[in-house]
Write a structure and sequence with these properties.
The protein has three helices and seven strands; from the N terminus they run βββαβββααβ. With about 200 residues, it is of the alpha+beta class. The protein has one domain. The longest helix has 14 residues.
């Protein structure tokens, strides 16, 4: 896996229509339930995966008076794309060059998310939360897969079953402190495994 960027999100609690009792909140890569800041794309500071290469840029798109509502994440991406029953090497955009991961970030799990077009900016949907598949698969309190192996198995299944159309990507989700703001609902530790690069 390689470091892929940073992103600030307003993390939402598990919605009532997702009856996965072990899930406390939605920390998926998708913005469908836990969104980023309004109009973050308009700043055009993001890289080709739709994340930010610098922590400062990820924080800067959030209005100062709203930063207490957001949490800061870092993403690492697995170097394969899951397409139907096949796997292909991930073509990493040239501008994906994030600064080194600051101290204090820790892994909270792994996601498998879709992208329906190769020309699309960012990953779109996480079937664990968007399609309620957290009811059927191993997940942790953050609505993420607890291990890399679980996430890869999820990507293989999603790519074949297509709960959301497109190719599937595996991403490690890490959380760190949000400089200049109070973090809401601090995350408890998990057993998520950190994959080596």
């Amino acid at each position: 896996m390689i470091d892929a960027g940073y992103f600030a999100k307003r993390v939402k609690p598990r919605p009532e229509h997702l009856p996965a009792s072990g899930v406390r909140e939605i920390c998926s890569v998708s913005e469908c339930l836990s969104p980023g800041a309004d109009d973050w794309i308009a700043t055009w500071r993001h890289n080709g995966l739709g994340w930010f290469n610098r922590v400062a840029d990820a924080v800067s798109v959030v209005p100062e008076d709203q930063r207490g509502e957001y949490r800061l994440f870092a993403y690492r991406i697995h170097l394969e794309v899951f397409r139907g029953r096949r796997r292909a090497a991930l073509a990493v955009p040239d501008d994906v060059r994030p600064e080194p991961l600051p101290a204090g970030f820790r892994s909270i799990g792994f996601d498998s998310a879709s992208r329906s077009s190769a020309s699309g900016l960012s990953l779109e949907c996480s079937p664990l939360s968007c399609n309620y598949m957290a009811n059927e698969m191993p997940v942790n309190e953050h609505c993420l897969f607890p291990t890399l192996d679980d996430a890869i198995a999820g990507a293989v299944r999603f790519a074949i079953e297509q709960p959301e159309p497109g190719d599937y990507y595996v991403v490690e989700v890490l959380e760190g402190g949000f400089e200049g703001s109070e973090r809401i609902s601090p995350s408890r530790s998990t057993n998520a495994e950190r994959a080596s690069t």
